[in-house]
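During the no-cost extension, the postdoctoral fellow (Dr. R.K.) reprocessed legacy sequence entries with the updated structure-token encoder. One reprocessed record is reproduced below for audit purposes.
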Amino acid sequence: MRKSIFALLLLAVVAGSFYYYIRYEYKPKPAVVRELDESIRRENEKLIAAQIIANELKQVTRLIEGNLAQSQRDSLAEDASLPFMNQMTDILRDHNIDLKVIEPGRRKNFNTYIATPYAMEVYTSYRSLVNFLNDVEKSNRLVTLDKFELSSQVKQVQAMAKDGLTDKRPMSLELSTLTLIKQK
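Re-encoded structure tokens follow.
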């Protein structure tokens, strides 16, 4: 019993000492220092945001420079760009997408850019299609997905199931490359 009372008394003395130290001896940061700490934190957030924006601007600049033609007769503005079709077939192959047809269309001239359409028919799963579109978006060309069509007639699905292609579906895509024309 005596040991318990002694332990409680010792605990009260330690707690009282701790309270005294925190209340009277320990000095918190002055208000000026707290305000400066908060100001530094806000400025660091602004700096990080500016660095992110600068990095994205570099990527946008690189993308624009890679898709900027000097005139409408520039090689970048040609119909049926063979390097672009090769790049698309490589990406399709990387995602195990069966390409049935890829056909370039007639280019459409606008004041500030040229759009060259490409019609594609593929056999693919939804996941592979999404991964393909993500990689196309990350490519060095400006590309838009103009049209997407999923063909799922019962007879086609049954025929594909017999061939063991249960997860792949016939799909039609229409992509357009955009070539910016340098303004004089």
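The beta strands are 68-69, 98-104, 108-109, 113-124, 142-150, 169-181. The radius of gyration is 32 Å. The remaining legacy entries will be reprocessed before the final report is submitted.
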